[in-house]
Structures
1.
Amino acid sequence: MDLRPRKRQIQSITGFTQAEVEKMENLLIESREQVCDSEVCKKLAKTFTRSKGRAGKPIAKWTEVQAWFQNRLVCYPSKDNSAEANQKLPDYTEGCTLNKANESSHIPKGQKDPALSDLEFEARSSKDGAWYDIDTFITHRFLNSEEPEALVRFVGFGLGEDEWVNVRKAVRERSVALENSECNKVQVGDIILCFQEGKDEEKYLEAQVIEIQKKLHDIRGCRCLFVIRYTGDDTEETIRLRRMCVRPSILGRP
């Protein structure tokens, strides 16, 4: 099995990650006339701030998003014939209703904007057990066990890194980062993703919160400590909130 580390996301000199720049480029192509609207920029900045790619990084400000669009509009062409640039993230809700009668078909593309969609997904890679954001659901198939699998492309990775994943066991709605003021939403027993950064790789591994040590916040933000146990090997580690992403359902807690 190929166990080489996945390529790390490279942060651009503008302060946006590579994935964030790609989202804004796509939105600029599809909605050129609306991209500088303050409400659009605020919603996009909030999406960036809650993404796993922002873990450990400053929050995305909507004014910075708006300034990026304004600068790009000066020289951005009105049309872009690049097929890759116009590629949309498919609506996977349709893919969940697949059956063996249409197992050779491709999952249809949805109508949702890839930058603003509330339906974004992540999948667990069989190569390293880490979870990565899904860019595209390419196609699907059914195994002899009638378990559905989807061929996915991860955000920031190319054709050679496409991977078949079990839809029921290894695909779910994307985890999100919490703001400093939301640390009280995390509870003992929660399943979370923990950000790990090494010399050659960045990845998110699944873990369970087993202890929470409440601390006073200061100018640096949340200082609480979270003891976690990784589900892959049962090792334990103490982390801070900035390294954590949680299930979207946790955001609804008071």
2.
Amino acid sequence: MKAGFANPAAESKLEIRQVWAHNLEAEFEWIQHAQEHYPYVSMDTEFPGVIHKPSKHHTELTPSESYEGIKANVDALHLIQVGLAFAATADSPPAVAFEINLREFDPRVHPHNPTSIAFLADSGIDFARNRADGVDARDFASLLMGSGLVCPGDGDDDSDVTWVTFHPAYDFGYLVRLLTGRHLPDTLPEFLRLVRVFFGGEVYDVKHMASRCPCWLPGSLDGLADELGVKREAGRSHQAGSDSAVTWGAFRRIRDKYFVNEGVRGFAGVLHGLEFDLDLYLAAADADDENS
């Protein structure tokens, strides 16, 4: 084990490493080491809320309609934080978490949801410091591409990394936009294909899993964690590093409490609100190509 990471089996407080422009390259060496030794990664992001809202209630939206709203917002806004928590095995607590603070968003000039920004400020995010000391998103994207965390190979299921998330349509939207350097694709199938290309087939959404439980469970991460008895070991709610660790705890608890018999493999690749059979779509597209 590389010096500096706590023993995940020990009774020690989770370390959330803060990543800024001045230590970005050094911290990405740690991230690459973590990826090699702790292949279970939970992820969260913070962003400036939602400014484009649908005309219908979210429960009435089709997956394609939901994606239209996600694309409109992600294309118009800037990412604020990315959190990554790493665990050694599917049953281990996180060994370490990273909180990458990005510099692009300025609430004085960029569009945002004022309520969301006030909420994030109350949760401890210092927007002025992010602007002064934060990471350039292009530098983050470049290092992420070379870290071994993304692009497992042709978007197949043989990824060395298992990703765990909570309601991650926006999270993946912002990361896909950063990694491609362009606006999100026009269609839901193309977006999901890019998610698979960058993050592989072992992607789990805890919110989707909770929606398939035999009993009602709260819809927010904090509410779900409280219901499941998951403790926040470090940091504050609505900061990406801390929330990524809580997401991992919620995944383990919901898996072991509700899906111990059938397992969770059937949930792989399904994002809440964007439920779409990508494999069926791609097979049909291949068949059309062969027949044309």
3.
Amino acid sequence: MEMDFEPPFLKIYNTLLEKNLGDNSENDLYSKVEGSEELPLIDLEKLNLEDPKREECMKEISEAASKWGFFQIINHGISNEILNKMISEQKKLFYQPFVNKLSAETVFNLSPKTYRWGNPCATNLRQLSWSEAFHFALTDIPNMDQHITLRSSLEDFATRMDTLAENLVEILALKVNMKSNHFQENYLPKSSFIRLNRYPPCPISSEVFGLLAHCDTSFLTILYQDSVGGLQLMKDGKWVDVKPNPSALVVNIGDLFQALSNDVYKSIKHRVVAAEEVERFSTAFFYCPFNDAVIQSENKPAVYKKFTLREYRQQTLNDVKETGDKVGLSRFVL
């Protein structure tokens, strides 16, 4: 018997399964993965030291953002206590009966589409994400009166992630000749959000992804993940496994920062593999401006025309509807 908290993937996607299972027209789904990589690991402790150590650390951050688009950070100032509490609250949430999760908006007093699973638009197995997620807008969290411990875990996590993201974007801004307070001046109030992810064990793990390949829209995303692993990113045209490091947070550049930096920083495609035996948890913080914030590089000649986050999100929705996928920044190239 399936546990009552598991989303009914096999039942709901039965038609896709019958149609596509074993149809490896593009060979094996994961055949193009080439080894595993250690992401650049940056010790933020050095930011508290005198120059040249501090300057060196800032340079490491901007180099990783331009060469990799991804890096790991340690001594980031977020205690294990806060991270562990977040994961334990997250598990309680995901282990609620599936029917309760479907009505999460009413149960938790939140915005529509707080709970997501699978991919309602999938027309074949390649478009199916074998995962479930809760998507919390930071502005929603204070309304969760019925769920005090979950609310306080989310608040602690969000407050510290926000400060960390703020510090990182200021450093990255300086390195592309922007004022360090550019974000404070142009992008408040923020529309940042937290996404709690669970990747259930998957009986057809060689046929589907845990999370489809995508680039993040945000300025910056900070991820806390367990030690199961499964994150892969595109490096030099090849997929590589990212080795999990339990004591580090993973940071990646989003589309908005790639546009703002005029392509100096890279928003890189990444995905999560499905695992047959184990479940995986991760918690992501997406640092975003308000919807009408104008994204425009101050560096000339500009690669992208100026756009607002609202326009970008709308374009993404249209593209997903028409092509089944997000097209992203190429839509805004001058």
4.
Amino acid sequence: MASLTSITLNPSYSSPLGSLASKHCQHNQNSCWLTAVGSVRSSSSTRQRFSSQGLRIRSAATKQAKTPAEEDWKTKRELLLQKKVRSVDVKEALRLQKENNFVILDVRPEAEFKEAHPPGAINVQIYRLIKEWTAWDIARRAAFAFFGIFAGTEENPDFISSVGSQLDKKAKIIVACASGGTMRPTQNLPEGQQSRSLIAAYLLVLNGYTNVFHLEGGLYEWFKEGLPSVAEEEEEE
């Protein structure tokens, strides 16, 4: 990933943004990048003015290379079907957990898991709060904030290793998230609908897990049906 090295303005060009960008550059290159880019994108005339009068961005933050989780849904779905990942409804999932030693892998954020989850489920979140403060991470935080989301998330890079520390690759796993998603085609969704649990299932089969199932309807349906659930505090007592 490229990172911001410097932004400079022609010394002969004087403007409020020029002094502001200079101040930001002296203290924080990341916020300098955001200020400059946000301003430069404001209009085509602004872009031309700064281009002609001396705004120089030597190196700007760019998006990291695409990860497997960011692969397009069509590719994910094809592999899931090829690997015979089967979707089960919530009642079937409960039966498999009780009678066949299936483990429910809850990939929701940790806070949601603590509020309520199926008894015996384990939690490895597939997405986590953005942790780093690179120029790219700050840009993503700003993008989330623009839409009123102040707890932006990113892919959890430790997802597979965390699962591996608790489950071996032959473990019988039912992957669950809040909504569930579906691989089943419908008139409106001919390729089904992607979800966090289906992304997680894709990553698992991609990394050699051989008994992966998917919870159709998600944990929303589990709780709606009144199936057993516990909070973390209850388990600790």
